[in-house]
Amino acid sequence: MARSSNLAQETASILQQLGVDRRVYQEGTRIVRSPMTGGTIANVQDADAAAIRKVIDDAVHAFTRWRLVPAPRRGELVRLLGEELRAAKDEVGRLVMIEAGKIASEGRGEVQEMIDICDFAVGLSRQLYGLTIASERPAHRMMEQWHPLGPIGVITTFNFPVAVWSWNAALALVCGDAVIWKPSPKTPLTALAVQALFERAAARFGGVPEGLSSVLIGGSETAILLAEDERIPLVSATGSTAMGRAIAPRIAARLGRSLLELGGNNAAIVSPSADLDLAVRAIAFAAMGTAGQRCTTLRRLFVHESIYDRLVARLKTVFASVNVGDPRDPKTLVGPLIDQAAFDRMQSTLGEAQVAGARISGGGRVATDYPDAYYVLPALPATRSYFFGADGWPLPVGAKLINKALAETFRAIGERGADSAAGATVDTGDDTGGTISRLVRDRAAQIASILGASGTEGSGRGRRCGSAERGRRRLARGRTKARACLGVVW
Fold first, then answer.
1. What is the reported pLDDT for 307?
2. How crowded is residue 458: how many other Cβ atoms within 10 Å of its Cβ?
């Protein structure tokens, strides 16, 4: 209990240092818990319907002023935001660790991603140009010009509590849009901290309209209100596939635009000629990073029959030896699951795999001093076939892969898609490697951009960035003399 109390005090100290009003995180009715201890670290207040309407009103008014600011000047605000993030990288990274349970290096790394996208967006602010198009009419030309969309709704999830916002916000701001942020109810404190840093940058910039960037604390009902409001032309939402199914029809019903990054179902294929040392390292990192709580987490592994026993034996050793524990310990490589619900879902899936004949290694809860925290050993369910879980996903680990049966493997990988597919098939010299290379390329099943994720499962419905052109087309509206370009062409 003492360490839980100390964690709450540390959280309050960081928030105070970053400029967050004490009342915002101490006088609310929603309890915020740290997955590190399961203890309460703050109390925040959900926005009611009136507060949500006011935030949207303010964002609309801010947009009408911000869109008139020249794009390079808008980029200057984002540059200043990047400076504030650089100065507060350790503090924000520490807060990510406390609130999301990431190890320290992952917390700081997430803030670095925010800094990187700010740098990217500053360059983009001087590249918002359009085409000049030849016309059939003498002495005429057509000119393409891009205009801001309007207030952008950004809904984020707990596993990347701050980076995802920045991927959207940095581009939206240079394009001339206002941003309304609805963070996960599991990680609202990091959002409040980043908003405070934005306000510092805005004060340095001068003349930023009130409501240009705002945070709405709340649950699913808040997300639904954003999805249904016609004043928000684009809603970018990151989270579960179930969440996407809930809000996408509401956005579509008003002919709004949605940019969805949802759950992943990622696979790796290990062929006979693969470098097993490299494969083991890659598989371990992909499967265990962020305690497996990423849309890009490796969920399925297809192994050629000739190397199956060797690879699985090595993976069992690695999975069993990884340091699982308190993220404050520098030796820790895997922190806690976010909460009991995540633990229960993991155990349910492992139970399904066992019923289907899989042999389960790991997956048990690690004993700690915190009964409400969920530290769990990585699990390796090994089987020589694949099965479909209760949610309809094929869930094989160690399913055999033989050259003459590649089509069956590809069906298992591609039937419902994946955010990313990794082929550990260096210089195979056989048909396996060539086919896998084509699979990865042709299904666009890799993370295929600098910061913006894409995919072929429930994810990748639109793109935040990946190139200046695509980023601009997501968050701006194109016009030509002859026609309107909607700007969503992916």
1. 87
2. 23
Q: Which residue type occupies 201?
A: A
Pairing mode of beta strands 141-143, 145-148: unpaired
DSSP one-letter code for 69? S
List b or e across 149-162, with b for residues whose CB sees 16 or more CB atoms inside 10 angstroms: bbbbbbbbbbbbbb
Q: Which of 203, 214, 144, 187 is nearest to 485 (CA)?
A: 144
Mapping DSSP to helix (H, G, I), strand (E, B) and coil, where does residue 125 land? coil
Collect the ranges in the chain with pLDDT lower than 50. Answer: 1, 387-405, 415-457, 466-468, 478-490
Fold (CATH) for 46-262+461-485: Aldehyde Dehydrogenase; Chain A, domain 1 (3.40.605)
d(CA 393, CA 395): 6
Terminal Cα-to-Cα distance of the chain (whole angstroms): 51
Q: Which fold has domain 266-442?
A: Aldehyde Dehydrogenase; Chain A, domain 2 (3.40.309)
List the catalytic residue out of 118, 175, 295, 485: 295
Parse the chain into domains and list their residue ranges: 46-262+461-485, 266-442
Which among 449, 470, 55, 32 has a CA at the least distance from the CA of 229? 55
Q: Do domains 46-262+461-485 and 266-442 have the same CATH topology?
A: no
Catalytic annotation present for 295: yes
Max Cα separation, the chain?
80
> Are 302 and 267 within 8 A, CB to CB?
yes
- Answer left, alpha or beta for residue 384, where phi above 0 means left and psi between -120 and 50 means alpha: alpha
Instruction: Give the predicted TM-score (pTM) of the model.
Output: 0.85
Supply the pLDDT for residue 299.
Answer: 83
pLDDT for the residue 422: 41
Question: Does the active-site annotation cover 415?
Answer: no
In whole angstroms, what separates CA 318 from the centre of its chain?
27
Question: Tokens in use for 242?
Answer: 């179930």
Whole-angstrom distance, CA of residue 375 vs CA of residue 364: 9
Residue 266 has a pLDDT of 82
| Residue type present at position 451 | L
Provide the 3-class DSSP secondary structure of residue 487: coil
Q: Find the catalytic residue in 84, 99, 261, 457.
A: 261
Strand partners, 236: 154, 259
